[in-house]
Amino acid sequence: MDISQLHIIIPLFILLALVAFMYSSVGHGGASGYLALMALFSFPILVMKPSALLLNIFVSGISFWFFKKSKHFEWELFYPFAIASIPAAFIGGYIEINPGLYKQILAIFLIVAIIRMLNVFGKTPTKIREPRLWFSLVIGFSIGLFSGMIGIGGGIILSPILILLGIATMKQAAAVSALFIFVNSIAGIVGFTVKGGEIPIDAFYLVPVVIIGGSIGAAFGSGKFNSKTLTNLLAAVLVIASVKLFLI
């Protein structure tokens, strides 16, 4: 995949900025969206994982800053999930899996992302309850391990869990997920490089694009923002990518 080709780089940059915008508005880094686009643009499997993790770090960090600034972050809710997920993400980043299996796992996670973005999991809970420590540790470890393996931060899985179980409001889930994604993405990419993997140089050319899109999205999302139309468009992209991953 040569992103220096003009007919490829322009639509790629536009779509990357859109993905960063949409995901950051709900406290996510966008890795599942980046992976979907890389699949559509025929990026090599070995390039996809480290590139998505790199972009994830920047966008999730920006998203967390905006949501924390708006006072939506709860440390007590974050740390039980994080202390188990960080070492698990490192282990996951270190693990090498079969390319075919990688595609199938990624396709499943993209379907989860689609369901999450279409708000199938319902509205913000009216009564918030505190999760048990053992539950947070088990869920954090499981999400961290699979996130490190396939190259996502795990927020796309954590957010619906927090909301479904009435552990957090939508804004709180977004703030917690943003930092969760940030630390897991760092752990995953460290594990990948310790194993001997390299971050593609081309991936760094994509960073300014997602920073722009992510900053705008996080600014709107941490306040009041209705992004239903963009959500549906992004869900369509993920559907196409997941189908492609299953068939190829």
Number of strands: 0
As residue ranges, the low-confidence spans are none
Number of H/I helices: 10
Q: How do the SSEs run, as a string of H and E?
A: HHHHHHHHHH
What this model shows, in words?
The protein is globular and about 50 Å long. 75% of the residues lie in helices and 0% in strands. Helix 4 packs parallel to helix 6. The chain has one domain (6-247). With 248 residues, the protein is mainly alpha-helical. The chain has helices at 6-24, 31-40, 45-69, 75-94, 99-117, 133-150, 155-164, 170-194, 201-221, 228-247.
Topology:
Blueprint: H1 6-24, H2 31-40, H3 45-69, H4 75-94, H5 99-117, H6 133-150, H7 155-164, H8 170-194, H9 201-221, H10 228-247
Helix pairs in contact: 1-9, 2-3, 2-5, 2-10, 3-8, 3-9, 4-6, 4-8, 5-7, 5-10, 6-8, 7-8
Q: What distinguishing features does this structure have?
A:
248 residues; globular; single chain
Characterize this entry briefly:
The chain has 248 residues and is an all-alpha fold.
